[in-house]
Amino acid sequence: MATTTLARHLSATIKGMKGSNRVGPWYNPHMAAASHAISERISLVDLIVEVRDARIPLSSEYEILKSCSSSLKRIIVLNKMDLADRAELQAWMKYFKETNCIAYGVNSHNKENIKQFLSFLQSQVRELKRTDLTSYTATIMLVGIPNVGKSALANSLHLTGRISAAEKGKLRRATVSPEPGETKDIRSFKIGSHPNIYVLDTPGVLPPEVPEIDTCSKLILTGAIKDCMVCKKELARYFLAILNSGEQYKKWANLSNEDDDGSFRNGITENISSSKLDMKQRRQSLADHTQDFIVQNVKRTLFETISSFDGDIRDGEELAVLMSKQFCSLQNTFNISTECEGAHVKVAEKLLNLFRTGRLGHYTLDLVPRNLK
């Protein structure tokens, strides 16, 4: 299949690969030290919360836990659930339930969801020790691969727990970044009282060995592996292959202009131009790919290029022709000059940002095993 071929090619473009031993360039001394520190502390905590990316519930599995005791109290949290396909997320929740795993879907930026999750964690802690909870202190360790949202989750739990406990004082926050690998040390945040509950935010850790091709490509696409380690254009091509062969683009049919006068295509842009905005503001609006009207135009462009394609998407060469056309069309949609050096790289960067922030729909890249779906 063409998507598999692109995944293989993407994985092969990882920069800094250390010869035949297949050690990933991400596994530096800092990550090795973090892995050792986490492994040493796992047996000392009361509860392990393994944070995974809801878009890749299997590919984002935390390697270190595979060698831990089966008696370890563990909860699998599917974070970024707002970016995943809802039906597929439910299927994965069912899968974990049927495999006797405790799982919980979370959006770390949704206050109500975090309140419910905190309440769930408190109930799990109470089950650990039922005697004299007022003097009991529990420690929860958040673990996971890079960029699954551990720090954002720690912050949200800390803020919600602090407010509910009416505790005063300066709020200490974990560093949150869209780039993987920003958390450098293990840090503690209080999230509950009576009993006292502390959560440990840990650095994201990937296995030293490069994962198998399909898993590696998904980790790169969702941002667990830094973009600087791969060719961004190849990464965007991999996303386009997934989009072109899926059903998501069909939801954008209503955005396509069926008329020949181009009124839909140009209407919003003309409104921007005819408004009282000064020239600088107009240029900023047209250059900002996150503007709603540009996102709508991106969806329309993608729908029209895919739906008008009469080739075989399963054929690698024909798919390449389609993607080349899409890059050229998106360059115009993103208002990137044809004279701009590295124009297609800029297209790739903007396209990947829209995918990763959920502006181009919700995706679950891992399939649930068929016998349990």
Summary tags:
single chain, 373 residues, alpha/beta, 6-stranded mixed sheet, 12 helices
Describe the structure in your own words.
The protein is of the alpha/beta class and 373 residues long. Helix content is 43%, strand content 10%. The protein has twelve helices and six strands. It has helices at residues 2-12, 29-42, 86-98, 111-128, 150-164, 213-221, 232-244, 263-274, 279-287, 292-307, 316-333, 343-356; strands at 47-53, 74-79, 102-105, 137-143, 187-192, 196-201. It has a six-stranded mixed sheet with strand order 3-2-1-4-6-5, with helices on both faces. β5 (187-192) and β6 (196-201) form a beta hairpin. α1 (2-12) packs antiparallel against α7, α4 crosses α5 and α11 (316-333) packs across α12. Mean pLDDT is 86; it is low at 258-265.
In short:
By secondary structure, the chain is α/β, with parallel strands linked by helices. The protein has 12 helices and 6 strands. It is globular.
What share of residues are in beta strands? 5-15%
Mean of all residue-level pLDDT scores:
86
Radius of gyration: 23 Å
Number of strands: 6
Broad shape: globular
Structural class: alpha/beta
How would you write the strand order of the largest sheet? 3-2-1-4-6-5
Oligomer: single chain
First-to-last CA distance = 23 Å
Strand/helix succession: HHEEHEHEHEEHHHHHHH
Q: Indicate the percent of residues in helices.
A: 40-55%
Largest beta-sheet characterization: 6 strands, mixed
Q: Please mark out the parts with pLDDT under 50 across 5 or more consecutive residues, or reply none.
A: 258-265
H/I helix tally: 12
